[in-house]
Design goal:
The chain is α+β, with helices and mostly antiparallel strands and 254 residues long. The protein has a domain of 122 residues: Aminopeptidase, CATH 3.40.630.30. The protein is built from 6 helices and 14 strands. It is globular, with a radius of gyration of 18 Å. The relative contact order is 0.16.
Length: 254
């Protein structure tokens, strides 16, 4: 059940239009508010359930004028069944040791993040982050937040996930892994591992951020089934085939 926050006026702000990082030719806008640390956990719960995401001490959601492709997505863990490729990812990484840590940045984590960004997102908004930028990402606005580290048998840090614990699940804020080990499927494994963590903790969902139909960067989230996406009418099960057909029909009319 969503926790209610104290009834008061929250100031919301709207960004100026800028090029969409997911869909070519589209412009994006976001509505956002700042976390009040005095009531942060409850506010984070409530606004995440309403489609917002946390980035440091800011909660935001898309507010685009001509597009509604970005939809909050979550996995209902009690019903989730891994696919054949996801079972292979679990098997390949079953020897990794997991440790949940306080949200405090370390040079070791930053070194891993830098290698990950250089290899996979060299032209993205996060490219060129210094250690103080990373510390801000991890430590500012933390709300029942933890850094989950994954190490191999030699003690090498191979993956890290920044996680918020909500009243009903885990919200995966950001994750990164050793790019030289891409064939291990570490990105998928960290999601699958948190599905198991949520189930063991009696939590209902793993929140994955935004699924964006047609975006190679975000479309991978539809591989986790069942998946629920947030519409104006509420959460619904994603029917990928039906949604793809609808998107194709809409594109043919524009």
């Amino acid at each position: 059940m969503t926790r209610l926050i104290a009834a008061k006026q929250l100031p919301f702000f709207l960004t100026a239009p800028s090029p969409c990082p997911y869909l070519p030719g589209q412009m994006e806008r976001k509505v956002f508010t700042k976390l009040d640390l005095a009531e942060g956990p409850g506010l984070n719960d409530t606004l995440t359930h309403a489609g917002f995401r946390r980035s440091q001490s800011i909660l935001y959601r898309p507010a685009c004028e001509r597009c509604s492709a970005c939809k909050s997505a979550r996995i209902p863990v009690a019903e989730f069944k891994p696919s054949k490729s996801q079972r292979r990812s679990l098997k390949r990484n079953q020897g990794l040791a997991r440790e949940a840590c306080a949200p405090e940045a370390t040079p070791e984590q930053y070194g891993l993040l830098s290698r990950y960004l250089d290899e996979r997102h060299g032209d993205g908004d996060m490219a060129g982050m210094d250690f103080f930028d990373y510390a801000g990402m991890v430590e500012e606005g933390a709300q029942r937040t933890e850094l989950v580290e994954y190490r191999n048998a030699d003690g090498m840090l191979v993956g890290t996930a920044l996680i918020d614990e909500l009243v009903d699940g885990f919200s995966m804020v950001y994750s990164f892994f050793e790019p030289d080990l891409a064939d291990m499927g570490l990105g998928s494994f960290m999601i699958l591992d948190h599905v198991m963590r949520a189930k063991n903790a009696g939590l209902s969902y793993v929140y994955l951020g935004y699924w964006v139909q047609g975006s190679p960067k975000m479309d991978y989230k539809a591989r986790y089934r069942p998946l629920e996406v947030l519409e104006p009418s509420g959460w619904r099960r994603l029917d990928r085939e039906q949604d793809t057909a609808a998107a194709t029909a809409l594109a043919s009319l524009t």
